[in-house]
Amino acid sequence: MLRIYSQSLGCAKTRVDTERLLGSLGPVLTVDDPLEADLVFLNTCAFISPAVQESVQTILELVDDLSEMPKGRRPFFAVAGCLPGRYGIGDLSSEVPEVDLWLHTDDIDSWAEQLCKALKLEKPAPGRLLSTGPSYAWLKIGEGCRHNCSFCAIPSIRGQYTSESPEKLVTEASSLIADGVKELILVAQDVTAYGTDFGKDPRFLLEKLLQLDGLERLRLLYLYPGGLSNDLLKFLSEAGKPFVPYFDMPLQHAHPDILRKMGRPFSGNPQEAVDRIRKWFPEAALRTTMMVGFPGETDEHFRTLMDFVEKNRFHHMGVFAYQPEDGTEAAEMDGQLEDGIKEWRKDTLMELQSGISEDILSQYEGQRLDILVDEASDEWPGLHTGRAWFQAPEVDGITYVSGPGVEAGAMVEADITETREYDLIALA
């Protein structure tokens, strides 16, 4: 049996690529030590400079670890994903010859075939090796991006948007549910773009997924505001369970001047998008990401952003300080801000959000909620971490839950006994 040590850096989409690849290699045994592996597989991120640095550092650390082994016993080392997608295989292979195989994002459909050929394995077959535990799984429904935001390198790395086959996705989803997964989380660079490349829209896929027996939660991430039309929202409002009224909408900013400079596909009034969701879902949980310190952002622009966040009271919000990325339009713009200003604005906005989050969560104290249990906590025996309907994995806070019937993969009813800034405490 092939022994594999793997790492996925960056977003959930990268994780899905890794899980699909490993699941297609036949029976495998995952190991925690690269020195015990036959195959060391690293899927990289290169979205922003810190991610590039992390990817390079991880490669060098693995090279250093593997150099301790005699050449004849050294594992096969493959590096895939956005790093070779952004910088090309030629330059990377000459700089790091210790990597046996580089896998480019343009060739993602042939990664398994290339690895099987290199390792002299049988022809790959579709599969999925989950790394998220028994409760949830990500379902990547598209590749690439149809937008060309001035700060983003994704289209140059991943290409233009392409939807996954609906038949393939339904088959994959059915298999995951049969294995016990209770929550599916749809991800793409823009989930609202699904189907646009073959004359459909997301409803075409959602109608099929919502009918799957055994699915208890269906969550959508990365929803572009322009794609959240009244038609789509009406459809979702009528869908009922297992759809979760949780909307992750990466707005990036609130001032139209900055949005236009960013090249966002909606550069008018982002308030309209928020109001449209709350018209159909008054109790919706909203999540967003904001970017501060974009070139030319003034104190007035930042104040508009602060006022917008204070008014709209998002359940969850991530804040990023702008980083100029090589090859992007924004990196060449005038008005680049000092790092100190960017970091101050980031901290100030997050301080505002932390108070909003704490206040929103306090309203759940005393309520009885369904908690999907993800895994055991190492804080003390019997304690687990899980999530209420308004908490997505990895990006939001968590619920600490204990009591009868609490185990990884279970959906339990629990009383919320305490609330914190980002997390909940519950007793089943």
How would you describe what is shown here?
This protein is of the alpha/beta class. It has three domains: 2-119, Methylthiotransferase, N-terminal domain (Rossmann fold), CATH 3.40.50; 136-362, Alpha-Beta Horseshoe (pyruvate-formate lyase- activating enzyme), CATH 3.80.30; 368-427, Beta Barrel (OB fold (Dihydrolipoamide Acetyltransferase, E2P)), CATH 2.40.50. The chain has helices at residues 12-23, 49-66, 82-87, 89-95, 111-119, 154-158, 166-178, 203-209, 230-239, 256-262, 270-280, 299-312, 339-362; strands at residues 2-8, 28-30, 39-44, 76-81, 101-104, 136-140, 142-143, 162-163, 183-187, 217-220, 243-248, 285-292, 316-321, 368-376, 384-387, 399-402, 411-419, 424-427. The chain has a six-stranded parallel sheet. Strands 2-1-3-4-5 form a five-stranded parallel sheet, sandwiched between helices. The longest helix has 24 residues, at 339-362. The two termini are 41 Å apart. The model has no long low-confidence stretch (mean pLDDT 95).
